[in-house]
Structures are given as structure tokens and as C-alpha cells.
Amino acid sequence: MRAARLLHPEVVFPSMYLIFLTCAYLGYIIEATRRFLVPVFGELHALSLILSLYGIVLVTISALLGRRIELKLNPGILLPVMAALGFFALQSTFPEQLFVNLTIALGSVAFWLVFTRYGSLRILLVGSYALAIVAVALTLSRGIPLLEAGFRESVAVSPARAVFHGLAVLSASLLILNTRWRIALPAIAVLVLLGVLSGFKSDAIAVILSAVIAGLAANRLSLRALLPALAAVGVILTLVSTQIASVAYSSWKIPPHLYIFYRTGFTFSVFNRIVELSSPWGLLHGSAMSDVSQMITSKVVLGYEREHIITSTLFGPAMLDFGITGLTIVALLLGAYLGIMHRLAGNPLATASYAVALTHVLILIEVGLQPTSVLFLITLLYLSLSSERVV
């Protein structure tokens, strides 16, 4: 029961966001990281912290309210939204592949419709795990992103990476809920290793977090399981992140144990710059939140000549587009969404979906919201609403 209370969104989300803000602040205090942040960004401003805390409070309140909502919605209503978002994300990334993009978008929606009518948890588990392996194999067959900076950037917004991330996280939570430990643990370890090799620490961390959250929610794990899970996350955030940074920048002078403070400090510094540029009513009016590649920030906010993927915290894109109004709307909607997903988590599939949704929102604290994340979260809501049909 104690673990279950800790998994309430109004507890987990503000706790993790406050940890993020603390690490970012320490990045500006610790001399080894401060000397790389202040010359580029200058000092942090109080308004950025105030707006972040404002967003955290809104998410917390709306999550509490969302847990009281008994959502009676025909899940079929979400299918056209999922198709439209899927097509938009693909078309934005691959504009020359109109027919292929339309086929994939409609095909994925047809798959979920058929599955929720005729499928089972075992089919979903085996299918999602197998497709995750195939997706990452397609990437690794062309190289190892962990060791090649240019290749890593080229696959960052690829369909293969999106498929691996989404299905690996879902299958990890289902493994904990529906298989024996001797099967679940090695299978999850393989997903974590493949996530590391693919060069994106968020993929590997998401697999770990979703499995732990699902296990705690279903009382298949005790709070003691958090220690090895957090240790694994710590290794990824230090050693793996340092490896990625070293490959990307050729030389890297920040010690591995301080990487998390630099990284959070950098990301929050980008949000700090966004607040300067877009307060109070926004600057881009939709371009940032619709940017699947997350590269627009590098040019508009940081002035890079060559586009790069730049993270700006959960509230960064909304703030850049619509200022305080955008931040407010995103915070309220995300909080209500998490509360509703928690209330729906009354069976294995809905519990797994909540674990994945909560994990994804926690990852977004650093990464920022964009169209594929919205599609992913809506798909998880569809699975939760349809979960009583799936056994």
C-alpha cells in the first residue's frame, strides 16, 4: 500500500521535477560545471524558476482532480486522432513519402483496433517485444549510435527509434506483470543493453522505470527494488552519458559523476533563455510544439548555424510558442491525463499503460513535449480504455 501511494502522479511528478531543478541549480554552483554554463548562458533568472514551480503546482492539482474523474469515453473516438498525429509526425519528418506515411499511420491504427478486439496480453507482450528487437536491430545493423555521433543524430527521429522506444517500454512493464522473474529480468536487461547501444539514455532509463513502476503498482516488487533500479539509472546517467558526450564533442572535461548536473543545468538554461525571449505571450505560436525533430530551438533560441536536437524542459516548447498561457494549458492537460490514467489502472494492461505513461512524462521533464509524445500518450489512453476487453 505504501508503494502504491508513492506512485500517485501528484507525488511522483513534483518530486522528480524538483529533483531536476535541484540538479540544474547545482550545475550552476559546482565549479566544474558552472564554468561551462555561465559563459554561454549567463546566470539563471528567478522568473524561470517561478514559472517552473507554477507549472509543477498546476500539474499536481490537475492530477488530483483527474484521479476523481470517471472517464467514460468510447476508445474508438481516439483512433482518428491517433491516425492524424501519426501521419503528421511522419510527414513532417519524411515529406517526400506521402503514400508510405499515410499507409503506416492508418495501418498502425488498424493494428490497435484489431488487437483490442481480438488480441490478448500474451500476444501484445510477445509482439511488442519482438517488434522492439527488430526495430533496434535495423538501426544496429548500420552501426552503433553510441560510438558514432553523426549516426546517432541521424537516427534520433527515425521511425525505428520511435518503435523501439515505445514498444520496449511497454513490453518491459508487461514482462514484470505477466511473466516469471527468470524470464522477465533477462528480457528486460536485453532491452536496456540495446537501448544503451542505440545511443539514447532516455530509452534505456525508460525501460527500467516502466518495469519498476508496473512492478510496484501490482505489488510484484517491493520498495527495496528501487535501489538496484536507481543504481542502474545512475550508471546510465554518468558513464553512458559521458561516453555519448565524449563522442559528440571529441573531448570532454566534465567528470562522469558531475554529468547529470551539467546536463540538467544546460537544459534548464535553455528554458531560462526561452523565458527571456517569449514572456509573457510566446514567440513562435505553434512551431516549437509541432517540431518533431526538436531542432527549431537550436536556431531560434541558441542561434546555432547548424541545427541540433536541443531539449528545453517539459514546459519549454509550450512557453516558446504561447508563453505563460501555453505553459498553463500543457500543465493542466498533462496533470489531468496522469490522474485519469492512474484511476483507470485497475487491470494488468491498464496498469502497464499507466506505468509507461508516467515514465514517459517523467522523461519529458528533461526532453520536452512534441507531437510523437502526444501520440504515444493518447495511444496509451486508448489501451487503458480498451483494457477490459483484453485478457
Descriptive terms for the model:
74% helix; 391 residues; mainly alpha; globular
Characterization of this structure:
By secondary structure, the protein is mostly helical. It is built from 17 helices and no strands. It has helices at 2-6, 9-27, 31-41, 46-66, 78-93, 98-118, 121-140, 149-155, 159-178, 181-197, 201-217, 226-249, 259-278, 296-300, 316-344, 348-367, 371-386. The chain is globular, with a radius of gyration of 20 Å. The model has no long low-confidence stretch (mean pLDDT 93).
Summarize the structure.
The protein is mostly helical and 391 residues long. It contains 17 helices and no strands.
Low-confidence stretches: none
Count of β-strands: 0
> Residue share in helices?
over 70%
Taking the sheet with the most strands, its summary is:
none
Listing every helix as H and every strand as E from the N terminus to the C terminus, the arrangement reads HHHHHHHHHHHHHHHHH
Average of per-residue pLDDT values? 93
Structural class: mainly alpha
Distance from first to last alpha carbon? 25 Å
Radius of gyration: 20 Å
Question: In DSSP terms, counting alpha (H) and pi (I) runs of 4 or more, how many helices?
Answer: 17
Q: What percent of residues are in strands? A: under 5%
Which word captures the global form?
globular
